[in-house]
Design goal:
12 helices, 7 strands, globular
């Protein structure tokens, strides 16, 4: 058994705000002066929501991805779980040898591509084993979420990618041990977890502050992280193309020409006192897929139509997968009092 646990921030994720969280929360707290309910509409890694839990009594988290919802349900509930039992299962998984395992759905599709052949057999075996343990009642819902989330974090360190699954690196994969480790749970009683279309959820919830950080370019997160989405749902769908993606699902309008009207609908229908909107200037990017679907001026126009808006900016070195190149990259934070 290892005591070295994965922190929430330990995974790679496009557009994550790990390096900007302190700045974002400092600005929000200075301008809003409230500590009741904080809404993170597009939670992603939930780094910002997690930081908000230090200040706010209730934090509403929402993300449309199955994998992100699973991760929230592993980290944040206060439901008790059997640590001895779970660690025994971890020890068993770390003792697996891919040479002794048959091929499975995961290894047949992703082995030798996104993952080493033997590691992919172990991943597929663990995933099937977790499903069987859940169905038999051997694992509680929380224990299942913790172990499956820990598998995702373990896989992130082993993936033959640049941080997402739109493609794999075309070279020999370095053989590494599984080194399955548990996540370090956070257990926040005020966490309210949702998996809904943000614009529909906006009409059902209320709070003091809504933090909004939607996808702004054409890159669909459900496609970037399709391996984790596939792993979590475990429906074993037919896969297509070089990147081995299933049929599209959970496609965001924020990644399309409908982004502006969708954003306007969201901010107008959120029942909050303050809106805090993150935005970066990637619309100047040389990469077409990185070009923003909503321009800075459009954000300003929409927010100023709702209420008094202040704009803050911060230089930021973004997570780059290799093709996006431009100078003077900045992160903007719009704070609007409705």
């Amino acid at each position: 058994m290892t005591n070295d646990q994965f922190e929430l921030k330990s995974r790679r994720y496009i557009g994550n705000k790990a390096k900007l969280t302190d700045w974002i929360l400092t600005k929000i707290k200075a301008e809003t002066r409230t500590n009741d309910t904080f809404i993170d509409v597009f939670s992603g890694t939930s780094i910002v929501a997690c930081a908000a839990m230090q200040t706010y009594k209730k934090v509403i988290l929402n993300d449309i991805l199955h994998s992100n919802n699973l991760i929230y349900n592993a980290f944040y509930p206060t439901t008790p779980w059997d640590k001895v039992k779970v660690n025994q299962i971890v020890d068993k998984y770390n003792g697996l040898n891919g040479d002794n395992l048959p091929s499975n759905y995961f290894s047949k599709n992703f082995g030798g591509k996104f993952y080493d052949e033997n590691i992919s057999k172990i991943i597929g075996f663990i995933r099937e084993d977790l499903e069987l343990k859940k169905q038999s009642g051997e694992l509680s819902a929380r224990e299942y979420s913790i172990l499956l989330t820990s598998l995702i974090y373990t896989m992130d360190r082993l993936a033959n990618t640049v941080g997402h699954f739109d493609a794999y690196i075309k070279k020999n994969i370095q053989t590494k041990p599984l080194n399955f480790r548990l996540i370090k749970t956070l257990d926040f009683a005020g966490a309210d977890i949702h998996q809904e279309d943000a614009n529909q959820l906006a009409r059902k919830i209320q709070g003091e502050v809504a933090y909004i950080d939607p996808p702004y370019n054409s890159r669909q997160y459900s496609r970037f992280y399709h391996v984790y989405e596939n792993l979590v749902q475990w429906k074993k769908p037919k896969l297509f193309g070089v990147a081995l993606k299933p049929e599209p699902e959970n496609m965001s309008k924020y990644c399309t020409v409908k982004a502006r009207e969708t954003f306007k609908d969201l901010v107008e229908n959120l029942n909050v006192k303050y809106l805090a909107v993150s935005y970066n200037n990637t619309y100047k990017s040389k990469s077409k897929s990185s070009e923003n679907k909503i321009k800075y001026e459009e954000i300003v126009e929409i927010l100023e139509g709702i209420g008094e808006t202040k704009i803050f900016e911060q230089p930021h070195s973004f997570f780059n997968t290799g093709k996006t190149a431009f100078d003077d990259h900045k992160e903007f934070l719009f704070l609007t009092k409705k």
